[in-house]
Specification:
- This protein has a single domain, classed as Rhomboid-like fold (Up-down Bundle).
- The protein is built from 10 helices and 2 strands; from the N terminus they run αααααααββααα.
- It has a two-stranded antiparallel sheet.
- α3 packs across α6 and α8 crosses α9.
- It starts with a helix and ends with a helix.
Amino acid sequence: MILNTTTWILIVTIATSFYAWNKPDIYQKWLLNPYKVKHQRQYWRFITSGFVHLNYMHLFFNMFALFFFGQHVAYYFGSNGDELMLALYLLGIVISDIPTYLKYRDIPNYNSLGASGGVAAVVFSSIMFDPLNPIYIMFIPYGIPGFVLGALYLVYSYYQGKRMADNINHDAHLYGAIFGLVFTVLLRPGVVVSFVEQISQWRL
């Protein structure tokens, strides 16, 4: 059986997260520490930080979302869709961390980790292709159209990123989502017309 790209990402990310949890020195070396990226040129952290997670729940939610949206995005991209989805995911991890790097590059003790930026890029790419597809979230029994939930998510991430009231890297969520939109439009410009046509037909 040939595994698709989404499944390979899941396997590798789960394996590396478990490995890092059992190797504290590796765990510390793989975190995104903007200070060490700048002052010690440890650029690999932009990638490795996307393959380690804080705990089981953090890992589960990211991989759960990737499982449901990753293969859809590969399908929507058509030919060479698996390659484009992989590029979207990996670039989403790196690019979503650049604002975090710029903000905290002179603060030694700041660390960030997780695949949220890459996952957000994949989810929002899916929304561009299929904006009316209902997305279900915990405790809400009804699916919310992707473009509605996506807009709310962008506003929430921007607001929380400005507040900095918790330990969640909302900037990575926000910029990962924006990158997913931009990447999709650049690679498949016709998606804009399709997106507008679909949401124009939506009714409550």
